Structure formats: structure tokens, C-alpha cells
Amino acid sequence: MARPMGSVRLKKASPVTLAVGTALCIFILYFLLGSSTPDFSASRKASAAAHPLSPPTSPFRRSTGGGKLKPPPVTHYNLNNVTITPKPLENRENILLLTPMARFYPAYWDNLLRLQYPHELITLGFILPKTKEGNEATKELQKRIAKTQKYGPERDRFKSIIILREDIDPPLVSQDEGERHKMQNQKIRRAAMAKARNSLVFSTLGPDTSWILWLDADVIETPPTIIQDLASHDQAVIAPNCFQRFWNADKKEMDERPYDFNNWQDSDTAGDLAKKMDPDDILLEGYAEMATFRTLMAYLSKEDGRLHEEVPLDGVGGAALLVKADVHRDGAMFPSFAFYHLIETEGFAKMAKRLGWQPFGLPNYKVYHYNE
């Protein structure tokens, strides 16, 4: 019997062909719907920045074809909705962790990874000089960033990371500790540091930032809860005590000693010295040639003291310093010039006080500086 015209006999597909076809369909769907990077948790997706600073900055361009481009977006931020509280963890407040860096210390980065504040709420900001050492530090920093952000576990990845390179020539070629701390080098060195700090904070401070943690690149050991601990005091500017571990040859054991002498309470002697100075002269701390007899927080630490005991300060150092974002938003910066005969972080403390923000310190809460 003849088949009706137009009918087609379908050949039955083999099991191998069906399996190959199914696998190919699955691959195409995965390619189209999947992502080239590991999936992130809902909390990270909600807090991750589309741009490290905030809104798009590309200019609007007219269409050269017949189509019409959408106008550029207008982004609204209500700073009244940005909380700055003594419970930043519970309120999921955004942290900006800033570090001027001339050398890269692996222990510094390892310490960052140990921070127990959610990394998806931490933006890292770095500024490095355009020197041979600065170039090497940048390479090492980028290696660690790639390892953490691309290949590391999700819990270690930070919200965003910003790297700036300085546009000024460094005043000192060598970053050796002995050279950095020579008295005759202090004014030019700290003026350059002040400019770097100002460039860093005002280039990275975002509209959703609650707290800024300043942490020097050679601070290699902090409590993993340092952000929560310092913020719990609800102070606008607060500094822990910076020490240094070393081998004590007399005791034949590891010991520790004070390191940062820029956290201090003022003295009448310092005031009298300032009155005799020229307008551009600065007071320096920790030098026998300029005895100020200030009360140094470095020497207020007690072995049996309360960990969270507070003392008011007139000068602060930058080894580790937690600052409410509103302090910088109010205009407090690091003077690169003689400001009441103070400069850089000590000048910042004076400026903050003039704006109504009283700095405090924690004599018994310690962070540790690298020992060269």
C-alpha cells in the first residue's frame, strides 16, 4: 500500500545521540545563565559595590545611529540613613580601611585576613609612592589581592579594593627605620605623609562609609576584633596603643616595648616652646633635643590595667586609628603644614578638636609594629 504524499518516516535516534544532545543543551544553559566566577551569598550581593566609590562617572554620549541612548542614571544618597553606631557589626556598617604603603609586609596582609568583621563590608584603600620600593610593594600587594579576591574563600574577599599611586616625588629615598626617624627628616617626611593620607581618604570616602580605620602597612598584629572593639567606645577618634615585639637579650626571651609616641596629652612645657617658635616650625615628640614633657600614652599601659580604659588625647598617631566618617566629612584632614605647630596625624587631632570632636586613646589595648 502506498504511503500518503508528504509523509516522512523519522529515523529513531540512538541513545548515544540523545546523550550528546542532552549534554550540549545543559552546557549551553550553564554558559548563558551561569557566571564565570563563584556565586556569592545574598548578603554579599546586597552589599557589594557596583563601582568601588559609587555612581557611574562616564559622560552621556549621543547616539551616532538611529537609536536613542537612555540618559545617564541619577543616584540619590541620604546621609541621614548612614548609621555610625557602637554596634557596627549588628548594624552592618561599612568600613573603609586605609593604608599608606611604601613597603609590603606579608604579615600585614595575613593580619587583614584574620579580621573578624565581615569582609564584604570592608573596602580597602592603599596609596603607594612611585619609587623602586613602591613599585615592588605594588607588585606584591597586587599578588596578594589576586590570590584573595579571585581564588580565596568567599569569607576572605573584601567588598572592594582601591590602589592609588602618589603624584608627588617622595622626600626620602630610603624607607629604613633609622632614616625615617631622624629628627631633621621629620617635617618633610610627615608633610609628604599628610598629603598622601589626604589624597587617600578624600579619594575613597564613599557616601555609605560609616567608619575609617587607618592602619599602617608595618602594623602586623592586631586583635581580630579591632573594628568592633574600637567602635564600641562610640568615640569620634580613638587610638589603640602601638607596641613592638623584640628579643630581649638581657631577659633571654621575647619582650615588648612602646613604639608610637604620637599619642599624647599636652603639657605647659610644649605650650611654652610653641610660643617661641616661628609660624612654620613644628613640635616633635620623642626627641631629646625637643623635650616637651607631654604625657605619652605609650607609657600609660599597665599589665593589670583595664583593656578598654579610655584617656583623652591632644595628639594621635596613625599606626592604628579609628575615625567616624563624619569627622572627615566635616573637613578634618592631615595638615601638611604647621597647624598650631603640629603636622600630619598630630595636626589632625588638633583640627578634629577644633571641629568639636575629642580624640581618645586606649592605653591597654595594643597593636604591634614590625620590628626591623
Question: Can you walk me through this structure?
Answer:
Pfam families: Anp1. It is found in: Golgi apparatus membrane. One of its GO terms (biological process) is protein N-linked glycosylation. The chain is α/β, with parallel strands linked by helices and 372 residues long. The protein has one domain (82-369): Spore Coat Polysaccharide Biosynthesis Protein SpsA, Chain A (Alpha-Beta Complex). It has helices at 15-33, 42-47, 106-113, 132-151, 177-180, 186-204, 226-231, 268-275, 325-329, 344-354, and strands spanning 94-100, 122-128, 160-165, 209-215, 219-221, 237-248, 253-258, 264-265, 295-296, 311-312, 320-324, 359-369. Strands 1, 2, 3, 4, 5, 6, 7, 10, 11 and 12 form a ten-stranded mixed sheet that branches. A two-stranded antiparallel sheet has the order 8-9. It is globular and about 95 Å long.
Class from secondary-structure proportions: alpha/beta
Counting DSSP E segments of at least 2 residues, the number of strands comes to 12
Topology pattern, helix = H, strand = E: HHEHEHEHHEEHEEEHEEEHHE
Global morphology: globular
* Helical run tally: 10
Q: Summarize the main sheet.
A: 10 strands, mixed
Distance between the termini: 99 Å
Radius of gyration: 27 Å
- How many separate domains? 1
At the fourth level of CATH, the homologous superfamily is Spore Coat Polysaccharide Biosynthesis Protein SpsA, Chain A
Protein name: Mannan polymerase complexes MNN9 subunit
Organism: Staphylotrichum tortipilum
Keywords: Golgi apparatus, Membrane, Signal-anchor, Transmembrane, Transmembrane helix
Pfam families: Anp1 (PF03452)
